[in-house]
Design brief:
globular, about 30% strand, D-amino Acid Aminotransferase, Chain A, domain 1, D-amino Acid Aminotransferase, Chain A, domain 2, 2 domains, 9-stranded mixed beta sheet, about 300 residues, alpha+beta
Length: about 300
């Protein structure tokens, strides 16, 4: 059961979450012609009456770019203003997640992006740990990550997540927590909704953008943080077998944050994860506003 925040932004105005509803004939519902974002917020641990949002500007920029892929002009500045007002109206008192979504809101049956009405809504819910911070088990999915030549993977297009849904259910119903998808070239791409990192010989390794991954904001934050900490970072193709022999494997994402992987298929991974723990501690401090070096990554809202 989800605890949704009481106020949503829908059809250009703020209203009660329970009153924000779409028609069964909505275009995006039938054709996956939507794009979404997701960002976390927390009340400031110092109890100074502020809400902290992690990298709000980057999230708004990515959603605006995703909207352009749907032929929808929605400036990042507009998104940021509405999200700020959304938080002020809800005044959350615990860790929460914001879900903004752009979509084709017309009622019709023709799959297209031209001459069709678009719209934008936001809702939120209380959210703690999405995956176990103690670590998860993963299987290699039988489903493959799409290619950018057939679907614009630089955006969080809602229709693309049928593959993630198939992979996640396949993993859970076969006794695992999460799925790792390969790309069409047989290399590691990403998890059902997270980027993948491995550690080998002290190097932090992750598939690059040429491996049909999502441009993850948490992924980008980890790469920047790791380089600043003097950790050697490599973006390159990753083979399936490397997951089995890696010193550490972890998943990253807005919901998942940094989640260690303790098993891939039948291969159990080391229980000591010094680099993963090091990065997770630093990232937690940043999101809680305790690291002045990265204070520009935290957007503060007075409530």
């Amino acid at each position: 059961m989800h605890n949704f925040l009481p106020v949503a932004y829908f059809e250009g105005q703020f209203r009660d979450f329970n009153d924000a509803k779409i028609s069964i004939a909505t275009h995006a519902l039938h054709y996956g012609t939507g794009a979404f974002g997701g960002l976390r917020g927390i009340p400031d641990p110092d109890n100074n009456g502020q809400i902290l949002l992690f990298r709000l500007d980057r999230h708004c920029q990515r959603l605006s770019a995703s909207a352009r892929l749907l032929n929808y002009d929605l400036p990042a500045e507009t998104i940021q203003t509405i999200i700020t007002d959304f938080v002020k109206k809800n005044r959350p008192i615990t860790s929460f997640y914001i879900r903004p979504l752009v979509y084709t809101s017309d009622l019709g049956i023709s799959p297209r992006l031209h001459n069709v009405e678009k719209n934008f809504f936001i809702y939120g819910l209380e959210l703690g740990d999405y995956l176990s911070p103690e670590g998860v088990t993963c299987r290699i999915s039988s489903w493959y990550r799409q290619e950018d030549r057939s679907l614009p993977l630089r955006g969080k297009i809602s229709g693309a997540y049928i593959t993630s849904s198939l992979a996640k259910t396949e993993a859970v119903e076969s006794g695992f927590d999460e799925a790792i998808l390969m790309n069409s070239q047989g290399k590691v791409s990403e998890a059902s909704g997270m980027n993948v990192f491995i550690v080998r010989h002290g190097q932090l390794i992750t598939p690059g953008y040429d491996q049909d991954i999502l441009e993850g904001i948490t992924r980008d934050s980890i790469l920047t943080l790791a380089r600043d900490l003097g950790i050697e970072v490599v973006e390159r193709p990753v083979d399936k077998s490397e997951l089995f022999i890696a010193e550490e494997v972890f998943l990253s994402g807005t919901a998942a944050k940094i989640t260690p992987v303790r098993q891939v298929e039948s291969y159990r991974l080391p229980t000591q994860r010094p680099l993963t723990d090091h990065l997770r501690q630093h990232l937690t401090a940043i999101t809680e506003g305790r690291d002045p070096t990265y204070q520009d990554w935290v957007f503060r809202i007075d409530i």
